[in-house]
Amino acid sequence: MTDYCAKRVPDHVRDKVRVGFHIRGNAVTLYEERPHFRDRTHWVQIVVAQFRYNQKTMQWTLYCADRNSRWHNYQARPTKDIHRLLREVDSDPTGIFWG
Predict the structure, then answer these.
(1) Which of 2, 29, 38, 99 sits most deeply, having the most CB atoms within 10 A of its CB?
(2) What value does the mean pLDDT of the chain take?
(3) Do the Cβ atoms of 85 and 92 come closer than 8 Å?
(4) CA–CA dist 97, 94 (Å, integer)
(5) pLDDT tens per residue across span 62-95
(6) What is the mean pLDDT of residues 49-68?
(7) Cα dist. 32→1, 56, 57 in Å?
C-alpha cells in the first residue's frame, strides 16, 4: 500500500494532495488528504475505499463510503489479490472513489 500511495500523487502536487492508508485489524482504509480551506497547515482526511481481509476465505473485499463515511460493500467480487481491487479503485468506473 505504501508504494501504491506514493505513485498515486505526482511529485509536483504533493503540497496540495496526499494519499495514505490506515490499518486496523483486518481492514485497510485508503484516504486522501488535502489542506483545510481555512488553515492550510491542517490537513483533512477523506476516506476513499476500504479493503477487508477474511481469514477463513483468505480473500479481500472492497468497500466504498457514503456521504456519512459509512462503509458499503462495493460491486467487485472478493479476491485473494488485493491488487485487483486497487485497480478497480484506480479505474473508478462508477465515480464513487475519486469522484
Answers:
(1) 29
(2) 95
(3) no
(4) 8
(5) 999 999 989 999 999 999 999 999 999 999 999 9
(6) 97
(7) 13, 30, 29
State the maximum Cα–Cα separation within the chain, in Å, rounded to a whole number: 46
What's the rounded Cα separation, in Å, for the pair 92 and 99?
Answer: 8
Three-state DSSP class for 1? coil
Q: What was the pLDDT predicted at 51?
A: 98
C-alpha distances out from residue 58 to 52, 70, 82, Å: 10, 24, 11
Beta bridge partners of residue 61, listed in sequence order: 52
Position of cell 456519512? 68
pTM: 0.91
